[in-house]
Amino acid sequence: MKRSKLLLVSGIIGTLYGIYIIYYFLNAASSSSGAEQIGAGLATALVMPHMAFVWLALIFNWLGYFLKLRWAALVAGILYAVAILAFFIYFMFVIVEMILCFVAYAKMGKVKNEETI
């Protein structure tokens, strides 16, 4: 079974987004002072569950890609969906990765079934 190109694309986009969001919130918290720093800390605390689910989804995304694990692609898609629910305002940054993981999961199943026949 070949590696899924959809999981590769999803992993690359998700990794770029994961790095961006961590850089953005760490930079916002460190470059401000006083009341701005308190506000940045609160914003980071609100977005933290979203970031955690994105990074957890990325782990399963890359596991699914490198180890060719169908179930890991499904778990990654589900975790991307949970990340959307954790902070709905940022849904547009995660929706593509979620869709790609679910499509990769479906295609990996079809390829596996064809190989056994």
Written description of the protein model:
The protein has 117 residues and is mainly α. It has four helices and no strands. The protein has helices at 5-30, 35-66, 70-86, 95-116. Helix 1 (5-30) packs antiparallel against helix 4 (95-116). The longest helix has 32 residues, at 35-66. The radius of gyration is 17 Å and the shape is elongated.
Order of helices and strands: HHHH
Runs in which pLDDT lies below 50 for 5 or more consecutive residues are none
- Number of helices, where a helix is a run of at least 4 consecutive DSSP H or I residues: 4
Average pLDDT value? 90
Task: Provide keyphrases for this structure.
117 residues; mainly alpha; 4 helices; 83% helix; elongated
Describe what is shown at a glance.
It is built from four helices and no strands. The chain has about 120 residues and is mainly alpha-helical. The radius of gyration is 17 Å and the shape is elongated.
Topology (SSEs and partners):
Elements: H1 5-30, H2 35-66, H3 70-86, H4 95-116
Helix pairs in contact: 1-2, 1-4, 2-3, 3-4
